[in-house]
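FAQ

Q: What does a record look like?
A: Structure on top, sequence underneath. For example:
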């Protein structure tokens, strides 16, 4: 009978309520009707507890830094820099798009910010080169998945918050390998696609042009090195790194490049605050929901039914991947990570899965689901940004989903893809 809360949540979602309402309503149904000995006030207490951790302060700061650089010309400098080296190759503009998403992802940590910042200039360039609009948009939204994996990934921060024993700095490093592997697959596909559809090449940039564009991109390119190097070198914590990133973004865009005025910063901060409030409301609601289902022992029932008494590490990882992938096709990735990680993480770790590798698998599947129909959040972001219909946005996504699924399987089977860099640095 406890599963009636699922029906209540489903009905609220169908009726169009924002995700926080079904989460809170589901928790209230469990507490009021199936957990009579539990004080309902605990839900409010847990919502507050969910957003208190110091590590969460990194989220609004990284979002603010990304918004400052999106408002400025950082994304254009990165696009021009990459294009000067690979733009003349077969499929060069598509490779440039994937590479620019990777580089901007190392600044923003957000798939949606990457769609906006890189997608806006690159879509027009791709269309001029003869790409179909559906292909261009599919490339952009799926390349933005890389931003959710590589540092400073917001997904990794949320996972570290709810998974015991996970270190944010180690998660940041572990996400780099899978992120680069996705880029390799997309770049290879770009070359094949360009040959099949006879996409023309562009004139090769001179070394003088490359030097000029490299010089312009040099300071933005220093951003990921400061973040990763500072965290792993023990100079500052991930939260302090987020503060440094805001300062660095302001120095670059306001005082050096002069593409953002000081008077524009309050407006940018307001935009960042709105995004942050949405994230924190989901985190708070997810915390209350997680406590309610744990008190009702629903996670234990679910894991026993799905995984059995003594599952192997690979079995657990594939089941985890399936649940997170499907979940993020319908619900915001942050919510899915908040709810499902406490359910599966203890079982996975007991089965011998490295908690850092588990985090990479979880965040990878969350990124994949966020760009997959029917309700992946990146699809709706692209639809709004590019003013295209839902069907136009998803039409070109199947090849990229197939590639991402293949990479996801490789990451599960070969943990060194995520852990090799971390082990080498240690």
């Amino acid at each position: 009978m406890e599963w009636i809360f699922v029906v209540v949540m489903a009905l609220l979602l169908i009726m169009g309520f924002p995700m926080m309402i079904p989460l809170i309503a589901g928790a209230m149904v469990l507490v009021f009707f199936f957990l009579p000995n539990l004080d309902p006030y605990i839900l409010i207490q847990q919502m507050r507890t969910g957003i208190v951790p110091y590590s969460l302060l990194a989220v609004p700061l990284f979002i603010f830094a990304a918004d400052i650089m999106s408002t400025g010309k950082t994304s254009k400098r990165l696009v021009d820099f990459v294009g000067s080296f690979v733009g003349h190759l077969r499929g060069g503009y598509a490779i440039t798009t994937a590479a620019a998403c990777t580089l901007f992802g190392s600044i923003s940590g957000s798939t949606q910010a990457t769609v906006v910042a890189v997608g806006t200039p690159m879509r027009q360039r791709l269309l001029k080169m003869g790409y179909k609009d559906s292909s261009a948009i599919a490339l952009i939204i799926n390349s933005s998945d890389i931003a959710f994996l590589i540092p400073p990934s917001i997904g990794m921060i949320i996972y570290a918050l709810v998974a015991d024993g996970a270190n944010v700095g180690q998660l940041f490093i572990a996400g780099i390998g899978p992120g680069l592997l996705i880029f390799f697959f997309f770049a290879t596909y770009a070359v094949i696609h360009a040959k099949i559809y006879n996409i023309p090449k562009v004139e090769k940039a001179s070394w003088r042009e490359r030097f000029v564009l490299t010089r312009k991109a040099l300071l933005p390119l220093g951003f990921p090195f400061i973040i990763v190097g500072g965290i792993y070198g023990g100079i500052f914590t991930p939260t302090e790194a987020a503060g440094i990133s805001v300062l660095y973004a302001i120095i670059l865009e306001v005082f050096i490049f002069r593409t953002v005025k000081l008077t524009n910063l309050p407006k940018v901060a307001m935009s960042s605050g709105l995004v942050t409030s949405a994230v924190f409301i989901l985190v708070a609601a997810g915390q209350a929901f997680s406590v309610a289902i744990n008190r009702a022992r629903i996670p234990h029932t679910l894991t026993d039914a799905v995984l059995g008494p003594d599952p192997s590490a690979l079995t657990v990882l594939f089941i985890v991947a399936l649940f997170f992938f499907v979940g993020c096709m319908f619900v915001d990735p942050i919510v899915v990570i908040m709810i499902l990680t406490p359910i599966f993480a203890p079982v996975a770790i007991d089965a011998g899965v490295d908690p850092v590798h588990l985090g990479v698998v979880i965040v990878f599947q969350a990124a994949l689901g966020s760009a997959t129909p029917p309700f992946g959040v990146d699809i709706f972001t692209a639809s709004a940004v590019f003013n295209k219909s839902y069907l136009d946005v998803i039409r070109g996504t199947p090849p990229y989903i197939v590639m991402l699924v293949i990479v996801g399987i490789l990451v599960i089977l070969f943990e060194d893809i995520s852990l090799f860099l971390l082990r080498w640095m240690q």
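Q: Is there anything notable about this one?
A: The radius of gyration is 21 Å.
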